[in-house]
What does this fold into?
Amino acid sequence: MVTEERKGIIYTAFAYTLWGLLPIYWKLVEHVPADEILANRIFWSFWFMLILLVATRQFKAFRSETFSLLKRRKRFAALVTASVLISINWFVYIWAVNSGQMVEASLGYYINPLVSVLLGVIVLKELMSKAQVLSFILALVGVLILTVSYGQFPWIAFILAFSFGLYGLVKKMLKVNAAIGLTLETLTIMPIALLYLGYLGAAGDLALFNVSFGTDFLLVAAGAATAIPLLLFANGAQRIPLFMVGFLQYIAPTITLILGVFFYGEPFSAVDLISFIFIWLGLAVFTVSRTKWAMQVPVRRKKAV
It folds into this structure.
């Protein structure tokens, strides 16, 4: 018999594996500009999620949450902010993958957990442990080495890390069911995506329904490719401890890094390796500090005092 925790591990690990493999999907439509891929991803994600909500009998809850958000300006503003942030993240990721910068994209998701902690300290006034400070220093050294070796700041990695980190922060404040939340986010930005697709069609630059059946299928199915990993993650993460989610989250960038270097032939020099080693060390320190054992240490000290 499969326990709830084991189910949670399977769902969460599968979600991160799908996210790690997602670059293969975007590579299949690399002949389509990233902006049109994004517009299709948003548009079809909304309709896929809407059908799913109807099928799972959550449409009433979705409708109720929609009216509630419209009446509360701050929550509605948070929803719009989340929609914009995830759209930026999706666009930069698709563009990075299809422009041969998968390695830097993976870097963004390696440093994302550290960015989330930094945002927690700045915005939510959370306290950092000594281990977390050390992890930041190690990761910072790795990023500085990359910056010097590239001769430019790794902006793709930082846009991905900060856009997703801020998105997570806004979602934490919004507190909406994962499926309903994604439907609302795509609904908010969907009219813009539809208008943009209409503009491309009028200009004669629309790939959808004008290239091949395979391209049409992949662009339409981008909605399912977006939603399925998120729903798996939502079902898995609630069954397992947070520290275990922390361990599993590195599956996705690791797969992306392997794909970029070994399957798509992106350059990965000795300097890149040294930089990533510092970042991996920082992540190791950070992840261990989030385990149950490490989190219990400060509590014991407080009781002793």
Observations:
- The mean pLDDT is 87.
